[in-house]
């Protein structure tokens, strides 16, 4: 089944495959695998492609869902790699190209966080009133007109009719649904508590969306101000200043030293500005690609950003809020604390917190320490968080305390963002004002000296 699925993906995602081969696959599913292998041999023979990158979603022996990219010559090699790692394949696809992502956005759009909230709320409501899971999915299919969501729900229905587990359909789309979402559904399905899980997911996703909107809203004005400042500086330095400097140079007037320096900068950017701009764009592209493709480079960039003054405080609070909300949801869903900590670590961007959670799980709790003792060994967490976790563990209400912590840090993030924005706005205004003032001074002083001479 997985080989045929991957064969279809090979045929669908590669632009160099002819329409005839695609049609052959669609008309004859049995011949799909044979067609895919033939095409792979042709590709290798023509030396167009030696290795392909496959995106794999697989389940471990304990049922935990993981995802990874594997470079291989074909699906057989991917299956061999997964088997050697003791993994059971859920989905094997060619790693989606940028073109593929663009096509999906043009034809139907992605499944957004808002869509996930809506799906979770509806499923929670229908399961609460006693609606069967398959019937609930059918109702959602009728309600959703958005192509991407409708197609996904049809896929869920098909899987259920084939007797597959409910969470498998979500696990096949790890770029859309987070590991927290997928594993919460899996835990709820195992414990028979899906309605409660979807209820909690709807609440947590709604809070996550509200937090994202809050951050975007707070940073919108500073970002616009920063972009406008850069555009004004580029215009002044690359276009206005060189022309003004040229006028003074042609007049034969000897301006003051300060003006000469500013005019020299103007001439330099007038001559080489486009090359400098091009170099800047290339550097940005290299940094962006490196960030997306290299884990080491990504850690390096994030470590710089997360340690900037003021930014570090906001990022730490956002990370702790996400940790508390995620871990609370997973424990409520019935997941073991060690597994919940590892999945939470996967969802965290902050490197220090990610590594701390892994140590708590593998070097602390797994070796016999209590949750409170394991947390006390990690200096990243504020003492308040550590003490509350330890107390709640003894009381048996750790998920409730974690949710309270998440709500508390949500309000703290709001106040920290306001402080950050109130600091950034005057800095940006002062910076652009200073540059414009220096340029104006370099122009006005020579003009004033000229008027005195005449």
UniProtKB/TrEMBL annotation:
Keywords: Cell membrane, Membrane, Transmembrane, Transmembrane helix. Coiled coil: none annotated. It comes from the Bacteria. The chain crosses the membrane at residues 219-241, 261-289, 427-448. One of its GO terms (cellular component) is plasma membrane. It holds the Pfam family T2SSF. It is a multi-pass membrane protein. Its main location: membrane. InterPro entries: GspF/PilC, T2SS_GspF_dom, T2SS_GspF_sf. It is found in: Cell membrane. Belongs to the GSP F family. This is Type II secretion system protein GspF domain-containing protein.
């Amino acid at each position: 089944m997985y080989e045929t699925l991957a064969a279809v993906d090979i045929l669908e995602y590669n632009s160099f495959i002819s329409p005839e081969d695609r049609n052959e696959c669609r008309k004859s599913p049995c011949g799909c695998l044979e067609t895919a292998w033939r095409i792979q041999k042709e590709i290798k023979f023509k030396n167009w492609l030696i290795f392909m990158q496959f995106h794999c979603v697989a389940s471990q022996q304990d049922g935990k869902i993981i995802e990874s990219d594997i470079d291989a010559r074909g699906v057989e090699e991917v299956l061999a790699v997964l088997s050697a790692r003791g993994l059971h394949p859920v989905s094997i696809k060619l790693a989606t190209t940028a073109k593929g992502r663009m096509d999906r956005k043009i034809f139907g759009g992605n499944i957004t966080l808002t869509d996930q909230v809506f799906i979770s709320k509806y499923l929670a409501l229908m399961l609460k009133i006693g609606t069967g899971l398959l019937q609930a999915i059918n109702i959602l299919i009728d309600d959703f007109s958005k192509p991407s969501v409708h197609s996904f729900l049809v896929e869920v229905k098909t899987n259920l009719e084939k007797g597959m587990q409910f969470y498998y359909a979500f696990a096949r789309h790890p770029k859309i649904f987070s590991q927290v979402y997928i594993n919460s559904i899996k835990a709820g399905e195992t414990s028979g508590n899906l309605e409660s899980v979807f209820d909690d997911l709807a609440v947590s996703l709604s809070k996550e969306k509200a937090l994202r909107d809050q951050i975007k809203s707070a940073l919108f004005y500073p970002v616009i101000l920063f972009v406008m400042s850069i555009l004004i500086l580029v215009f002044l330095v690359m276009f206005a200043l060189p022309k003004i400097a040229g006028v003074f140079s042609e007049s034969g007037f000897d301006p003051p030293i300060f003006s000469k320096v500013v005019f020299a900068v103007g001439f330099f950017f007038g001559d080489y500005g486009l090359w400098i701009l091009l170099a800047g764009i290339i550097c940005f592209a290299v940094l962006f690609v490196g960030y997306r493709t290299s884990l080491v480079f990504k850690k390096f960039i994030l470590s710089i950003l997360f340690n900037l003054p003021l930014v570090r405080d906001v990022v730490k609070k956002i990370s702790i809020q996400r940790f508390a909300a995620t871990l609370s949801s997973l424990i409520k869903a019935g997941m073991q604390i060690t597994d919940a900590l590892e999945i939470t670590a996967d969802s965290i961007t902050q490197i220090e917190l990610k590594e701390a959670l892994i140590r708590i799980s593998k070097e602390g709790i797994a070796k016999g320490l209590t949750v409170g003792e394991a947390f006390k060994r990690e200096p990243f967490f504020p003492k308040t968080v550590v003490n509350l976790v330890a107390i709640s563990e003894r009381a048996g209400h750790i998920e409730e305390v974690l949710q309270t912590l998440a709500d508390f840090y949500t309000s703290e993030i709001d106040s920290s963002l306001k402080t950050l924005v109130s600091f950034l706005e005057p800095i940006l205004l002062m910076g652009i004002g200073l540059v414009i003032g220096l340029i104006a001074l370099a122009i006005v002083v020579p003009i004033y000296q000229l008027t005195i001479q005449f």
